[in-house]
Amino acid sequence: MFISDMTALVGGSESACAADKKNDNPRYIESEVQMKYGDGPDGHPRTRGILVRKFTGDSTPYKFPTPTPVKLVKEWPETPPFEKKDFFRADEGDDENFYTLPRLVYHIDEPAVASLTQYYRANIPAGSSILDICSSWVSHYPLEFKDKMKRISATGMNALELKANDQLTDFEPKNLNVDPTLPYEDNAFDFVTCVVSIDYLIHPIEVLKEVRRVLKPGGKVLISQSNRCFPSKAISMWLGKYSSDRAHLELINGYAQYAGFTVPRKAFDITATVPEGSRDPMYIVELTK
């Protein structure tokens, strides 16, 4: 199926749930995403509506403890010790083909999404300019960010998913594995976010150098990471010699060092506490220009 356009329809239904004590947001928002694909017998594009459910991160039964600092202890040498094979992937096929069809799914569970949303709310002040790299149909920001932020930009692989992301002010589709440069001016953003995606970058140091370039002085990068991925597209050392949650944080810290981010580089465990059952962990690496 060739999809030529995708639009999130305004006026989706909100699921019934208890209101959050602080912000009266529903737990879920359901909306219809309309896709245009192919051509019908009359020559006009066919359309198909897909009902999607978004997590708001609010009105959940989860608790969000104060972020726990994770001490980064690995000492990285002056020059990157990585080899070319460290960035190989099981599937070296064209990434744009892999991401051609919009998935409109979450890659982490609801508690992990909610913990990230709450972290953003507590750490990104109103009036900020934000860039979300490796973005998709959701950016996990609190609902009020759309109205309270100066700008929310994004770049990601799938233009159709970005078009369905109703929190964005603007977006630029970009395959950072082909060209790691960012299509933005120097000193343009207060914050750059990257959600569970740095493991797919084959030029992570170059991308973080670009992130540093587009950040304003004193601006911050918030790189979130859990333990899920597409194994075929994650780089080999993410799955091999740096395969644990702790090792992932140390590896990101190494990337940041070589990209010019000076200490202190910080890491936090922001995993939500759930009433019962298992949940995805969630970590933040925070870098400051």
What distinguishing features does this structure have?
289 residues, alpha/beta, eight-stranded mixed beta sheet, three-stranded antiparallel beta sheet
Written account of the structure:
This protein has 289 residues and is α/β, with parallel strands linked by helices. It is built from seven helices and eleven strands. The protein has helices spanning 95-98, 110-123, 145-148, 159-164, 204-214, 236-239, 245-258, and strands at residues 3-8, 28-37, 46-55, 68-69, 129-133, 151-156, 170-173, 189-195, 215-225, 266-269, 283-288. The strands form two sheets. The protein has an eight-stranded mixed β-sheet with strand order 4-10-11-9-8-5-6-7. Strand 5, helix 3 and strand 6 form a beta-alpha-beta unit. The longest helix is centred in the middle third of the chain and has 14 residues, at 110-123. The chain is globular, with a radius of gyration of 19 Å. The termini are far apart.
Computed CA radius of gyration, to the nearest angstrom: 19 Å
* Morphology call: globular
Helical percentage: 10-25%
Oligomer: single chain
Number of helices: 7
Mean pLDDT: 87
Largest sheet: 8 strands, mixed
Spatial strand arrangement across the major sheet: 4-10-11-9-8-5-6-7
Distance between the termini: 44 Å
> What share of the residues does DSSP label as strand, in percent?
15-25%
Parts with pLDDT < 50 across at least 5 consecutive residues: 8-21
| Element string (H = helix, E = strand) | EEEEHHEHEHEEHEHHEE
Count of beta strands? 11
Look at the helices and sheets and give the structural class. Answer: alpha/beta
